[in-house]
Amino acid sequence: MLRLPFTAATLEELPLARIRAHGPEVLFSVFTPGTHLLPHRGVTNARLVGHLPLIVPQDCALKSAVSCINGRRPGGHFDDTYEHEAWNRSGTTRVVLIFDIWNPYLTEAECAAISDLIPAIGDFGKRSRRPTDAAAEAFLSPATALRRGAPARRGRPDASGSLGAPSK
What we know:
The chain has helices spanning 5-12, 108-127, 131-137, 142-147, and strands spanning 26-31, 36-40, 47-55, 60-64, 68-70, 76-78, 84-88, 94-102. By secondary structure, it is of the alpha+beta class. The chain folds into two domains: 5-106, Jelly Rolls; 107-150, no CATH class. The chain is globular.
């Protein structure tokens, strides 16, 4: 296991966007030669993406709708809800430390509310039955239906292998 105590301690000093089961995302982005991360967008501007170049050869860049950053410049942060892409057109590996921080325009109360709201939405989704679950259950095999305690479907084989009453 890779241990980086100085990096970990430094990250603890940042306003990382801590959201149970969702963040912060902290990673080393490693692009081998020829890698191109195609244009894409993030899902929320409640957090910004910190971008700290560590090993960056020539011909690497991060391009967003707002600007194009040569990866050799000092790090910063950006709103990834704007379309962006990155590439390594060099012959050597590029490494950047990426991490989620709270958008500095949010108040402490707003950050706390988001930290509570996002996991609560996820918890609710896990507890509630989605309409597609009931529709999918209609197509369970007889063995699966019996394991789940659902009645055998009419017109389909029951546990003994014989058909139930034909469907109308």
